[in-house]
Design goal:
By secondary structure, the chain is α/β, with parallel strands linked by helices. Helices cover 33% and strands 26% of the residues. It folds into 2 domains: 131 residues, Rossmann fold; 249 residues, Dihydrodipicolinate Reductase, domain 2. It contains 10 helices and 19 strands. Bound molecules: nicotinamide-adenine-dinucleotide.
């Protein structure tokens, strides 16, 4: 007998679609007992929300998120709205005993993230933050390789997350889809939007970041606000570079911008250790590159003219998540990262061993994001306090 998992989705934009797709496909691909039921979607525009509900199969529409968090027929509140709304919705959802799934970045700042973490932990409700890149099979394989000790002592971690969609000064700030340029809705620019992903991945693979120093830049300092129609100062960081020291003693560099002409969602990382290296590039998401330093193999000296990087096509059933999909050599896509994350969350509920990243884990990422912004302002090294 399947158990219902009744979903209240808040927001019907990019993430509303990505999450709804995951709910609809879960039982097709993963052998879990729970069956998502798309109970309600919330958006402030009734017509648009109703069209979304018809398209994706939600039973009803709400225009105030409070109706979702307090509804008796909702088990999971899923927050897919701009960053400035996460705090109120998550706190109220936890207060009503709902499971809470929240988009990244968890909050506008560490204070909010701490309170949200306390709220879900005190309520004892399952919770997760959608840092979906952990669920790319190639990135999950990197984690496996690192945990198997194949990289050895870590020296370097290098991440980039580059886009190019805000170069024109004519792009307004605020309102639908462009809330990312409005500091009051987003909290920060590329630091919270893009580097939060890079930081979550980095700390998952290489452990906590202890301290950072940073430089941020706002290339276009005034933009029309889409809601007021007035020209207003831009408060977000358009680009951010930071240096990091990890608790394990390794060094990190992180670079993010929305001004890298030609780069659309260029999310890469490389990690170098004593025994090997891994490299990932989201533009070739099914590949993980791995270099293994070996002097001997099967008792024979390794011939150095034959050494080199391996480009692993992560489509074998032995690779993370891939036994749920197709035959070796066939790929999965961006949308599956959300499906894999949801499956992990549901399996966590069923096994009683909660999945990661939960709110507490996302709080650590928030600490690094805040420290980066503070370091850029001060022009100094800042301790993150991340664990
Ligand atoms: N995990 C990822 O890779 C990823 C990717 C994109 C966005 N995000 C995150 O997801 C969240 C949403 O981003 P998006 O790209 O889907 O944005 P979006 O602009 O496409 O959609 C936002 C939705 O929220 C709704 N909304 C705004 N304020 C609301 C309110 N007060 N009450 C109810 N609904 C409200 C809007 O109507 C819209 O439907 C953000 O926190 C963002 O950082 C994560």
């Amino acid at each position: 007998m399947s158990k219902e998992l009744r979903i209240g989705m808040i927001g019907y934009g990019f993430m509303g679609r990505a999450h709804s797709n995951a709910y609809k496909r879960l039982n097709d691909f993963f052998p879990v007992e729970h069956r998502p039921v798309l109970k309600a979607v919330c958006g402030r525009n009734t017509e648009k929300a109703a069209a979304f509900a018809r398209n994706w199969g939600y039973e009803r529409v709400e225009t105030d998120w409070r109706a979702i968090v307090s509804a008796k027929d909702i088990d999971v509140v899923d927050i897919g709205t701009p960053n400035d709304t996460h705090f109120d919705i998550a706190i109220e959802a936890a207060r009503h005993g709902k499971m809470v799934l929240c988009e990244k970045p968890l909050a506008m700042n560490v204070q909010q993230a701490e309170e949200m973490t306390r709220a879900v932990e005190m309520a004892g409700v399952p919770n997760m933050v959608w840092f979906n890149y952990r669920r790319v099979p190639a990135i999950a394989l990197a984690k496996q390789i690192i945990d198997e000790g194949r990289i050895g002592k870590s020296f370097h971690y290098r991440a980039t997350y580059l886009q190019d969609w805000t170069i024109s000064p004519d792009v307004p700030q605020g309102g639908a889809a462009l809330w990312r340029l409005d500091v009051n809705a987003a909290g920060s620019g590329v630091t919270g939007d893009l580097l939060a992903h890079s930081i979550d991945t980095a700390m998952w693979l290489n452990g906590p970041i202890k301290r950072v120093t940073a430089m941020t830049k706002t290339f276009v300092t005034e933009r029309v606000h889409a809601v007021t129609g007035e020209v207003a100062p831009v408060g977000i960081d358009d680009a951010c570079m930071f240096l990091a020291e990890f608790a394990n003693g390794s060094m990190g560099t992180f670079e993010s911008t929305r001004y890298a002409r030609g780069r659309k969602n260029f999310n890469t990382f490389e990690m170098n250790g004593e025994a090997g290296s891994v490299y990932f590039d989201l533009e070739e998401p099914e590949y993980l590159q791995f270099f293994e330093y070996q002097q001997q193999q099967s008792g024979k000296k390794v011939e150095s003219h034959l050494t080199g990087w391996r480009k692993i096509h992560t489509t074998n059933s032995e690779h993370p998540y891939m036994n749920r999909y197709w035959v070796p050599g066939t790929c999965i896509g961006y949308e599956h990262t959300f499906l894999n994350a949801l499956a992990d969350f549901v399996m966590g509920i069923e096994s009683g061993s909660p999945t990661q990243p939960d709110f507490r884990s996302a709080l650590q990422t928030q600490k690094v994001c805040d420290a980066v912004i503070e370091a850029a302002k001060k022009g100094a090294w800042v301790e993150t306090g991340a664990e």
